[in-house]
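Consider the tokenized backbone below.
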């Protein structure tokens, strides 16, 4: 029996609130089960048509200019950090590190023996620094949305930067759910297991002509690049609607399914509004709560897709454990941050009304845990009174 039993009337219709891998809708799971695309060669028409559909729908969703390209490869965003290290940074880069994933890219570049030491700008957890034009920097990199902390940063060109300096944006937990002017970046890259309601194993990159030129320039320089991270191979194969390595076809299928759903419902504006609705329900609740507080205090920096909530007077681990026992999954805080908090995804696949139900469930669990704690403390006091009576 669950430690805390949540009444069925309070439970959300779907209890998946993970920040990644995220909720794959049941309709998408059922559609894959009825498809014959799994188990066929990625060089054959069915999978190439699927890749072509994904690329075309991304062009539409992100309103891509004609000269931008949709490039894809195998391995996820972390693999793209290495691909960018090999194929996009000419000599020296600047990184904004305000969470786990921005710091990972900076670490990858810092470890490359063929590149100069990067500049890394950091800020206090729950905030983000701003890029600063710097001589000798040929690539500026940061996350649009830090999945680990729930901090969102603007996507924009760097004032005063060199004309040929690239802007590289990690959009993994923002792509398809937050406002974006893609022309403010040269590479906007992401994996599909967040707002695109798919699974891991792929990366996508929306590349400007300048980014494509940089890839070609570095390839021509003679720099050794492993084939798995070679962006010239990724470009060449993407233009043929395929990947260089065998892709996770199920991830492609679910990405295509989610893109179609988003476009059918109104595209990026609709998706943005849906996520803002969901996240505002959480922020509004936390601001009124006597035990919860938004971790990101500046509303202008609060993510609309990954909401982090600090708890006081109750252990977040106990709350998330009780929720899990009742079928509400993956609301634990990011382990590397080490805070007493919950982290809740509000991606477009998640119903805003389920977010409201989640809030009611959290309140119910906290109330029950608090009553239990008071009972234990009272029992302890009474026991000490018996064992050590007043003289």
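A designed sequence for it:
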């Amino acid at each position: 029996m669950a430690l805390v039993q949540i009444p069925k009337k309070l439970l959300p219709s779907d209890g998946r609130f993970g920040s990644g891998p995220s909720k794959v809708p049941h309709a998408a799971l059922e559609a894959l089960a009825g498809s014959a695309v799994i188990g066929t060669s990625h060089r054959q028409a069915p999978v190439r048509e699927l890749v072509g559909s994904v690329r075309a729908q991304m062009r539409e969703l992100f309103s891509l200019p004609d000269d931008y390209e949709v490039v894809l490869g195998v391995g996820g965003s972390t693999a793209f950090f290495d691909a960018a290290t090999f194929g996009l940074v000419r000599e020296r880069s600047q990184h904004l590190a305000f969470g786990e994933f921005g710091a990972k890219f900076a670490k990858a570049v810092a470890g490359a023996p063929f590149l100069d030491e990067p500049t890394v700008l950091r800020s206090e957890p729950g905030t983000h620094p701003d890029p600063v034009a710097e001589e000798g920097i040929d690539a500026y990199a940061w996350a649009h949305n830090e999945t680990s902390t729930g901090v969102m940063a603007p996507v924009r060109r760097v004032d005063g930067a060199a004309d040929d300096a690239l802007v590289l944006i990690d959009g993994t937990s923002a792509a398809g759910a937050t406002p974006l002017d893609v022309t403010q970046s040269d590479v906007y890259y992401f994996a599909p297991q967040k707002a695109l309601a798919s699974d891991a194993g792929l990366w996508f990159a929306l590349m400007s002509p300048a980014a494509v030129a940089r890839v070609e320039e570095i390839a021509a320089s003679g720099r050794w690049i492993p084939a798995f991270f070679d962006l010239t191979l990724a470009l060449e194969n993407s233009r043929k609607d395929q990947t260089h390595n065998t892709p996770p076809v199920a991830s492609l299928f679910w990405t295509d399914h989610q893109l179609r759903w988003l476009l059918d419902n109104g595209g990026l504006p609709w998706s943005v509004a849906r996520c803002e609705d969901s996240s505002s329900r959480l922020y509004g609740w936390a601001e009124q709560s006597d035990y919860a507080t938004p971790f990101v205090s500046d509303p202008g920096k609060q993510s609309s897709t990954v909401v982090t909530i600090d708890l006081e007077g109750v252990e977040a681990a106990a709350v998330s454990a009780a929720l899990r026992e009742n079928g509400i999954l993956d609301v634990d805080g990011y382990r590397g941050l080490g805070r007493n908090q919950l982290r809740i995804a509000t991606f477009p696949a998640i119903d805003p009304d389920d977010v409201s139900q989640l809030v009611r469930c959290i309140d119910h669990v906290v109330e029950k845990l608090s009553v239990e704690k008071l009972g234990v403390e009272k029992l302890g006091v009474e026991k000490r009174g018996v064992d050590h009576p007043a003289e």
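The radius of gyration is 23 Å.
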